[in-house]
């Protein structure tokens, strides 16, 4: 199942509101369960370099059904997933990407946010997910 | 100068309206004058393959400050720009990408549309540009 | 909705059977509705160059919800989609890729076959689709 | 020499069985001694991001004729192969990729598994290799 455009827009609107409250300039991306771009929004004066990071965070979150920061904990030097970011045309493994899971526990997409500190990026992503679902997947089964 | 997000959103909204009138399912991208993605919108049930085409059409239109279809006329076998689509990580040179030029004749960005016939793609792109500027650049000078 | 692995395996088994009947050595790929690889099978002595072609045919068919050969008719020099193969990291636009559409008219994936003449590639792809669905999409709506 | 499709299928079948016993959802890839994809299988609900990782693990294992985890020990910061993952369009250097060596000590291919912890990925890869060969190469000579 894929996130629909109404949900993607609602998530971006909520994320923008949170970004404005925090006084940040963000790039916000939503991808579907196939990691294909559904919607994207770059606030005026957001970093140009955040375009790709926001999209890659969203893709990374849906690729592995978990927050990007969780992957980053495992991919440090000496960690079990060191170097994983070389896969899938480049992952971003610090916070700011979150899965979007629907009421049936199905992974339907993900949101990725970039443009400020990773704490702010994560908070803005959370605000986006909160209006359309949750970020916690059941262990299994879940459908893609 | 770059298109701002308010103009990008207005262009996408107008383009969506026209797409709905035509009964089509479109991907719509807006890039700024640096060819960097500003906003993107994929209607439900639009072709997944149109994501990249819409973005590449917008980039192509701003790369050369002209409608994508104009470049396509020059890039046919035997034409002066044959093979130009191999540049810039891939161009799309058929209709559906249009520059966005502001009231001072400055190129501020471009819109790219993909998801139906090239005639429909072009019509939807035109509807988007119409609410925020024009597509005709003065010969020179114009600023990026 | 995505094709499941049982359907992907059934399609490949049927395609292999047809390939053997034709005395050909094929690469056969199945992707889901997000154009992500689900299953792949290379018969002994199939061309190594057909690996990428089979996968790209499957992706192309799902990207645009139509047989790859239909796109090829439109992408010739002078045609409306000339150069479309430069999108999406490379398309293959000759026959051998077919969408997989389920009983509800939903595009769930695609099959791509490469290794012989385009007529044989197409025939083998058809044999694969026949056991799990059809290749004809309703005009709209269909869901991805 | 290259692994044949019968062996590739046998390896995948054994790997799937082990994956099911472990309650995991895996992507499983087999490549030949030229590092070209022979067969691929994605279990329902496996991570989409594991497609590329499974394939890259298999390629990495055959590129250097050793388990991927062995390379990872050498590619840490300060290690002799630091950064090797930038070669060959991207390596994956944590466990889950194993060479397939035949009874004559010849490297005939490799298997790559991704979708769970690296311990589970490695165990599933081992189950696949066990039915078609071993993973230990003689020092030299061995043929490709």
TrEMBL record, chains A, B, C, D:
Gene3D superfamilies in the record: Haem-degrading domain
One Pfam match: HbpS-like
Name of the protein this chain belongs to: Heme-binding protein
Species this chain originates from: Methylosinus sporium
Source taxonomy: Bacteria, Pseudomonadati, Pseudomonadota, Alphaproteobacteria, Hyphomicrobiales
């Amino acid at each position: 199942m894929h996130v629909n455009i109404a949900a993607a827009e609602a998530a971006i609107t909520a994320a923008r509101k949170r970004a404005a409250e925090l006084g940040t300039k963000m790039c916000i991306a939503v991808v579907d369960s196939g990691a294909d771009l559904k919607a994207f929004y770059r606030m005026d004066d957001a970093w140009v370099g955040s375009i790709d990071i926001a999209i890659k965070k969203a893709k990374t979150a849906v690729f592995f059904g978990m927050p990007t920061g969780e992957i980053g904990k495992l991919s440090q030097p000496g960690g079990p997933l060191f170097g994983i970011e070389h896969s899938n045309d480049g992952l971003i493994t610090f916070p700011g990407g979150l899965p979007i899971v629907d009421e049936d526990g199905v992974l339907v997409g993900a949101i990725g946010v970039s443009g400020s500190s990773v704490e702010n990026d994560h908070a803005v992503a959370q605000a986006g997910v909160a209006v359309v679902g949750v970020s916690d997947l059941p262990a299994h089964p879940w459908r893609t």
